[in-house]
Write a structure and sequence with these properties.
The protein is 5% helix and 41% strand. By secondary structure, the chain is mostly beta strands. It folds into three domains: 207 residues, no CATH class; 140 residues, no CATH class; 82 residues, Immunoglobulin-like (Sandwich). The strands form eight sheets. Strands 3-7-4-5-6 form a five-stranded antiparallel β-sheet, with no helix packed on it. The protein has a five-stranded antiparallel β-sheet with strand order 10-14-11-12-13, with helices on one face. Strands 16, 19, 20, 23 and 24 form a five-stranded mixed β-sheet that branches. The two termini are 34 Å apart.
């Protein structure tokens, strides 16, 4: 049974989420990877964030990927449909945050990553029963319900006296996976995640979540990495010259004693200490350090636009640059003003740059202090990241964050849910981890990797091209 459930889980539509708890700010995105099969090609998505879509016609304005978008009406137990005919969407309908939708893939389209960006809002569903033969209600698992990780947890949260079945659509089999209430137990439970479109069968009317509770109350901030889109706020780049502590400079990829150095930078704001950008040059080297002056001196590149939310004048930016090889680090802080011009840090006439920025140090940031940030900045949440690069051939890096130490299983499966490689199986400490996956001996195609830890399973999709 466990093997069957893992296989079914692997072939579901995948999505990624990045957000923070301020309900009025742009906080991130949810991604639905829709797929086409030899069936009806239906995919269940949702309006997971507020602000981007207000009409069904905005989801795919020119009809490149979908030919029909539908929304369930629980009162009539019938779908409301909008179809793309010719060059336009006929009978488009209004949509808003929390609306579960169904999209039909267009002929010739095999897959498409549909991104919904915006802000966290509040949503209550009026779960109703009626006189028809079915009492189906479509819901989205709200972003404030991240603690509900399985159907067996969702059922009691809504209430066992109000629903008796929870269903999740499988776009590959074009069938529902069901968890049913038998007695007081939810049988055949499966993993669920925030932003997911689910269907519940009502036995009594109820408004859920409780109107007295805020939808974002339990939302945890996700540690956001700079390889994710979309980005928040206006662009404001900082180029930070990095010294080696002995009068020299670090340069990339590294001569002057730094060859092979594993250099990482972290940046965060005092006002939101649990949200930060991290870059590891071993995983994604090219965009993270720039030869700003064209003479081989290394600058750490930080743009506050890389954060998922916008920041205000008076906020304090902190940057730590760390050499993982020598175990040394340097720090830099800057209070944002109204000038959004690029800021050069550590350049002055001594080094030939002729640049003097008020309030900014005119010396390169030396990496001289012992490394301590690794212990200080433990992830707030456990997360499995999208592999990089993707698509890949034949190697790729898989990053994951562990909020607490524990047993971790990281496995790679093929499209049919068959295990092809075990990457991790054992105890790991809390922190940020990366594992390389070599698919030289595998056929090109779609693969899934799943991380199981602390009773949760997270899955991402990757594509091997040859």
């Amino acid at each position: 049974m466990k093997k069957m459930m893992v296989s079914l889980m692997l072939i579901l539509s995948m999505f990624a989420f990045a957000a923070e708890s301020a309900p009025s700010a742009t906080v991130g995105y949810v991604k639905y990877s829709t797929v086409a099969t030899a069936g009806t090609d239906l995919n269940h998505i949702a309006v997971a964030l507020n602000g981007q879509w207000t009409s069904s016609s905005q989801i795919d304005p020119t009809g490149l990927y979908f030919n029909k978008i539908s929304k369930w009406n629980p009162a009539t137990q019938i779908y409301q449909n909008s179809s793309f005919i010719g060059s336009s969407w006929l009978t488009p309908f209004t949509i808003s945050y929390g609306d579960p939708l169904v999209v039909n893939m267009k002929a010739g389209v095999t897959s498409y990553d549909l991104v919904n960006a915006g802000s966290v809002s509040t949503k209550q569903y009026n779960i109703i029963v009626n006189a028809s033969t079915t009492d189906l209600n479509h819901i989205m698992l709200p972003l404030g319900k991240s603690n509900l990780t399985t159907a067996a947890l969702l059922g009691p949260d809504i209430g066992n006296t109000y629903i008796n079945k929870i269903s999740r659509w499988n776009p590959t089999t074009q069938l529902y996976q069901n968890s049913s209430l038998i007695g007081s137990t939810w049988l055949t439970s499966y993993t669920i995640e925030v932003g997911q479109h689910l269907v519940v069968n009502a036995t009594n009317a109820k408004t859920w979540p409780d109107p007295a509770a805020k939808d974002d109350e339990n939302l945890q901030i996700v540690n956001w990495t700079s390889d994710q889109d979309p980005k928040g706020g206006e662009s404001r780049p900082f180029f930070i010259l990095v010294g080696d502590g002995s009068g020299g400079f670090y340069n990339y990829p590294g001569d002057e004693g730094t060859s092979g150095a594993k250099i990482t930078w972290f940046s965060w704001f005092n006002e939101r200490p649990l949200e930060f950008v991290r870059w590891n040059t071993v995983i994604a080297p090219d965009p993270s350090f720039i030869d700003t002056m064209g003479d081989g001196r290394l600058s750490a590149y930080v743009d506050i636009q890389q954060f998922p939310t916008a920041y205000a004048v008076g906020n304090t930016l902190n940057v730590v640059v760390r050499n993982e090889t020598t175990n040394l680090q340097g720090t830099f802080s800057f209070v944002l003003n109204a000038d959004a011009s690029p800021t050069l840090v550590g350049y002055d006439n001594t080094y030939g740059a002729g640049f003097d920025y008020p309030g900014v140090t005119n010396d390169p940031i030396p990496l001289t202090t012992p490394n301590s940030i690794g212990e200080e900045m433990v992830p707030m949440v456990t997360k499995l990241h999208q592999n990089y690069p993707n698509p890949f051939n034949p190697t790729t890096a898989i990053k994951f964050d562990l909020a607490t130490a524990g047993n971790v299983k990281l496995n790679v499966y093929n499209y049919n849910g068959q295990l092809v490689k075990s990457l991790v199986n054992g105890e790991m400490k809390a922190g940020y981890h990366s594992v390389n996956f070599d698919a030289a001996n595998l056929a090109a195609g779609v693969y899934y990797y799943t991380m199981e830890t602390a009773g949760k399973a997270m899955t991402q999709k990757m594509v091997l091209v040859k």
